[in-house]
Design brief:
single chain; 249 residues; mainly alpha; three-stranded mixed beta sheet; two-stranded antiparallel sheet; 7 strands; 8% strand; flat
Amino acid sequence: MSEMTSCGTFLPCIASSHSSTHRSRPSNSAARLVSICTGSFALAHAGLLDGRRATTHWARADELAARFPAVRIDRDVLYVDHGDVSTSAGAGAGIDLCLHLLRTDQRAGYAAQVARSMVMPPHREGGQLQYAAPPHPARIDGSLAPLLEWVTGRLGEPLTVDDLAARAGVSSRTLARRFTDQLGTGPGQWLLAQRIAEARELLETSDLPVDAVAHRVGLSSATNLRRRFLRALGTTPGAYRRAFRAASR
């Protein structure tokens, strides 16, 4: 079974100790159904995820939630394991899930040995949000466009919402209303998202120390950047840099 995604065609692998799949949860406790990437759609269609947490590729999480409202979507985690049914995020997260199942069935030492043979870490830090592409800019009109351009060129400065309102020549309340109407978020949240996006870019492409990255994006210190990263992406700046440096080799 296959699912189409916006980034290409995936061939989700659904593995089980039994070959049949039907619309009830596996009655044999030894059965295990595992989906990789958008294979979660097949499990959801079969009714096997109703009332359960599940995950899928970050680019398809909203669609999965809309099509199967009985499924509790966890957009951040790399995988969810219920024992009899498991789901993973992208294809790489499918490997994470398989290594997790090996740890569960054969213990950590054997899973680590398999991971080494695959040149993979036995366990990755954080969730899948760190791998999601930064959101594309929303469609904005002339009332916000000049301000957004002005702000993105000054992320290293200690800008506040009041500074943005003064630049736009409106009250803070009017500015908040315009941001919510056009961008779906408040000016403070938008500004923080831009700082984090710029920090991600610097961590991926430069050798700047984390403290220098924090100052470059207006987050004042490595401690503050770490706190913001953990809250937004579920990982630390150092772990994020290691993950993306390893991926680029």
